[in-house]
Each structure stands twice: as C-alpha cells, then as structure tokens.
Design brief:
By secondary structure, the protein is α+β, with helices and mostly antiparallel strands. It contains five helices and five strands; from the N terminus they run E-E-H-E-E-E-H-H-H-H. One FE2/S2 (inorganic) cluster (FES) binds next to loops.
Length: 206
Amino acid sequence: MFSLFRKGKKPAEPAPPEPARPAATASAPPATARASTPSTPGGRMIKVSMTVNGKPVSADIDARTLLVQFLRENLRLTGTHVGCDTSQCGACVVHVDGRAIKSCTTLAASCDGAKVLSIEGLAQGGKLHPMQEAFREHHGLQCGFCTPGMIMAAVDIVQRRGSGLSEEVVRADLEGNICRCTGYHNIVAAVLAGAAGMAAKPHAAE
Ligand code: FES
Ligand code: FES
C-alpha cells in the first residue's frame, strides 16, 4: 500500500501544547497589569513599563522580547502584524513617542517609559481616524494584512511632511511597506485623502 512515510521512518510525535501566556491588561493600573513572559534558556527577566494607546502597562518579560511580541502576546493587541520579521514589509509599524518604527526589530526594553500607539489606539470615541476612514472609502486594502502598518506609516508621513502631499512623495515614503494584494493605486489615493482628512479634522489620538 502507498505510504506517505519512507520505509523504516516513523511519523514524528505531535509537539506538546505550549503553556498559555498570561496577558497584561492595558486598562488596569500598572501595579496589577504586570504579566510574566516565561524566560527561555539564557534569557534575563526585566521589568518594562510604558504607555500603550493612552494606558499605562507594566510587565516582567524576557529581555529579548520584541515590541511586536509584547503588543501581541502580552497585551493581546493583535492588530499589529508580522509579515517578515526582518524589517522589510512594514506590517508591524507602530508609533513610539510619535515616530513610526518597525516593532518586529525593536526591543520592548528599549521602549521602557515610552508612549506607544498601535492601530487599536487610532480610532477615538467610536470614530475612525481620518486615515482609517480614507482607506475604507478608497478601498485601500484587499486582504487587510498590510493595512494596520500601512495606516500607521501613512499617519506618520502626514505628521512629518504635512497634508500637502504629492503622489510621488507618498509612494517614496511608503517604500518600507509592502502590500501583496492591491497594486498600491488605491493605497496612495487613500493616503492622499487621509492627509486632507487629517488637516480638516486634527485627531485626538495624535
Ligand atoms: Fe516588521 Fe515585516 S514584520 S517589517
Ligand atoms: Fe493584502 Fe495589502 S491588502 S497585503
């Protein structure tokens, strides 16, 4: 009979399930928001405290924890995506102290005391940020995987350069963000519209 396995080779044993990682709550005060990330061999545990989307958080983590891991695994803020892990695709862009950075190559420890803004913190009072609204209006997405990083990068572009952007500038400044679906045409249109929207309605999150 046909077999998927070579003669004499046994199928691999299924890996045991990973223990659940306790989550820090961004809404709780620092004293109770502490979460502990299990240290891997050779890891050193440190305490980090920062403000994420306007809320103070504090946790004991492995010193090698990346900011994107801290957001996704400790705080359960999974809107920030990981597309490459090597600082190329921009799916992980968040703002630290008002500047866009790639959280897949930023240590959480280096953000101790910082103000972090992720895509979850952009909408305010149940209203989308003008850049989010522009992406929705202009169909600046298909699968949506790149979209959180694209929007955070776009908001940063407007903050750095002002709202009078040209298509060339938007395309050049979005160089670090890769979309596998849209062909960029609608994304660029959305960023230009979002820039105009930000000028018309300065937003509380920024
Ligand atoms: Fe950070 Fe791709 S996941 S740049
Ligand atoms: Fe799918 Fe950009 S919308 S990767």
